[in-house]
Hints:
The complex is a heterodimer of chains A (318) and B (704). Chain A is an all-alpha fold.
Amino acid sequence: xxxxxxxxxxxxxxxxxxxxxxxxxxxxxxxxxxxxxxxxxxxxxxxxxxxxxxxxxxxxxxxxxxxxxxxxxxxxxxxxxxxxxxxxxxxxxxxxxxxxxxxxxxxxxxxxxxxxxxxxxxxxxxxxxxxxxxxxxxxxxxxxxxxxxxxxxxxxxxxxxxxxxxxxxxxxxxxxxxxxxxxxxxxxxxxxxxxxxxxxxxxxxxxxxxxxxxxxxxxxxxxxxxxxxxxxxxxxxxxxxxxxxxxxxxxxxxxxxxxxxxxxxxxxxxxxxxxxxxxxxxxxxxxxxxxxxxxxxxxxxxxxxxxxxxxxxxxxxx
Amino acid sequence: xxxxxxxxxxxxxxxxxxxxxxxxxxxxxxxxxxxxxxxxxxxxxxxxxxxxxxxxxxxxxxxxxxxxxxxxxxxxxxxxxxxxxxxxxxxxxxxxxxxxxxxxxxxxxxxxxxxxxxxxxxxxxxxxxxxxxxxxxxxxxxxxxxxxxxxxxxxxxxxxxxxxxxxxxxxxxxxxxxxxxxxxxxxxxxxxxxxxxxxxxxxxxxxxxxxxxxxxxxxxxxxxxxxxxxxxxxxxxxxxxxxxxxxxxxxxxxxxxxxxxxxxxxxxxxxxxxxxxxxxxxxxxxxxxxxxxxxxxxxxxxxxxxxxxxxxxxxxxxxxxxxxxxxxxxxxxxxxxxxxxxxxxxxxxxxxxxxxxxxxxxxxxxxxxxxxxxxxxxxxxxxxxxxxxxxxxxxxxxxxxxxxxxxxxxxxxxxxxxxxxxxxxxxxxxxxxxxxxxxxxxxxxxxxxxxxxxxxxxxxxxxxxxxxxxxxxxxxxxxxxxxxxxxxxxxxxxxxxxxxxxxxxxxxxxxxxxxxxxxxxxxxxxxxxxxxxxxxxxxxxxxxxxxxxxxxxxxxxxxxxxxxxxxxxxxxxxxxxxxxxxxxxxxxxxxxxxxxxxxxxxxxxxxxxxxxxxxxxxxxxxxxxxxxxxxxxxxxxxxxxxxxxxxxxxxxxxxxxxxxxxxxxxxxxxxxxxxxxxxxxxxxxxxxxxxxxxxxxxxxxxxx
Lengths: 318, 704
């Protein structure tokens, strides 16, 4: 019985992230439009886009291989699994222990690996430019992310996200320098991981400045729908990760009742609205940077993460 | 029943020794077969056998190739079984002494759990390479240059692992070096290979010299060179530091530790591909075995600082190796450089284990050492598959340069997914095995705030960051390799006409990938398998993993961290399947082929694709300035000038220019100075002999 309830909660969580992801993307777009004094598309426009893409035929490049067709499914799977491992409204889910924060980072790395391969598959120059730049960004973003994981794990004594969130709720936590460094670094890495301004522009139509969009240039129809959905999921995942670690209040612990679960969901939605609004605000107030400024930006994130880890090696109380 | 267990271990040793004899017999058989074949129909003298002769269409010659490789595979399998039995039964004793080698000393052999683990690695690699060789060897131009040395090489590696006294060890070490050198020189007429062989020989001699000194110091004035005697008389503290340094130099030069790696990216690609797989996947591991044997076993209890140079060198090796790989444009060269990276990762694990062991933290030490050993096993697997894949590309096209390949996924439909799986594994991506072992190393780094020393507190986080950087760079590197070689459009006519390779080669690759997946989703089984070796060296082991729920792995405690490769794999497969089903059910499944879009500017010429160099350019712009002193110069023609724009890159290899070139210059200078002593009269030489005698006599006089 307990197992069934646990399974139900886990299933709800997986469905919730899947259904919420396009909404978050739509919300960020809407807020950005409002901030620019436009009306912007409707909140559910991303759903409509996805359905439209799903119904359309796939136009495949002549020399695209079987891998090109398989990659959208692989990317979607890796991202969805990673997203369902992050505690959104509840901690201690049934399968939350099957992968820790390092594994979640690596799952996102797998998705990126495949996406970069997709960019190279058609043999076009734009796909190549996207793939090579994406991997350049990743070579700095991934170690920075791992250093953030190290900082958090050293503090909490665990790389499991549920335990991490639990530690953040406990009275042992106070204002710490290392935590602040980790937060700043995490925000920087999150922007890079999701290809947001100032690293990459998700709404760009200028080919030479594209990174993510350049890799998916050859995709169409259901393949594109899966990739778009995975991108939305990744945004949701990153935001959930940040709020789960730094604003863990309202997470329902393992074994709590239905009412608590619903409160958890409500609080989670509130956090997402807040996070999405802040993201939109940040994106409208800053310009995209040149590609070769990105390493400096991410290098700073890496150094902040390393500094946080070093501080904790020196003393647990910093 | 200790005696029964000891007897079992001794049996395993005897079986393995007979197998080694079998290898050596095969080497002689191969020589005989080659001589007979040569007598029967003399080979035409080939003036310049270039690589393209390897491509389809070259006349295959047999010379009993399948027979020799088949026998090698069989014997490797025998040793594998013996080693597995000995590792799983946890046998410790059982020394076998043969009346060979030095008089009154004999040759000591013993398979303890550490040796058994490494025998498994060696013979798993040997089995795969032999299987692959059955198919690949048919394309060999001069099998007489490969066949005799291949079994000898396997024999040498097995003997190194089994040897239990210094003389036997060094003898086997040299057998391994010389046999592999001969294999490197198999295609000696190809440009660059002779130089590769020479550099390899010099570095091998240097390494062996260091090992000679190491054993000299270890044996001390007692002069007993058997390992049990050395273990019984640990050296004093200041000497132990010197031994550690010498051991690092001696084994590091064979393993490819920076800055002693220079021979590796030259020699490994020069050998035939299945030998490259053995050298990269297995021989470097034998060198690491030597390091573990010397430092963890023979040198006695470690000092706290021993871990520091090991870790620092390991981290530097990891990052430099993979950055070199990013710059390389030769397929096998990239794989060789990536071996250097993985050796670095392994040494970081070993350094951490040393540090934990010195600080009496056995649980953490066991975790770090297990991580290192697991990575050794994993790297042997996926690097073998990658070299087999490179060999398949070579067989199919005759090309190794990335910039001439492309689009092979259409022409090699079986090799491509296997190579891709190995790329995923080496890039440390879940759910494959590379991730499992790197995850363990990261977990052991997270335990290291317990180390009390300040040096460690500052070093370990930096090492962790460098390791993370190396892992991310490895992913970029293997996107580049797979993307340029297998994806896109063919960049040369040969690449567009490639044909899939034979079944033996594909079988060897499939087996390797299957084991990679198995080790990735069930790491607990492998960790438990290694536990006896770890327990023998550390005195503690990781908690048993296979009894855990859902077959997940928990290095220390479940509240700290856990990982379940099986569930991650199943969940990913399930989600992908679900998505595919949902789309098939509710969405459109119409697919239309059309010309590539490319924003409306597709260019039919394949050179407009991203090349290996252009893919690496952003990363070179980030790291190259610091590491290689790389400078890019763009020559733009003046407005109105119709000349082509040019970009040129200058790079420096600081290690080669800073260490090896000065040393070479000094050697040449010394040679020219001593050249004068070559033409003296007999009186001068008699004088030299006399002086040398006096000098030698002075030594014992001053010593006592």
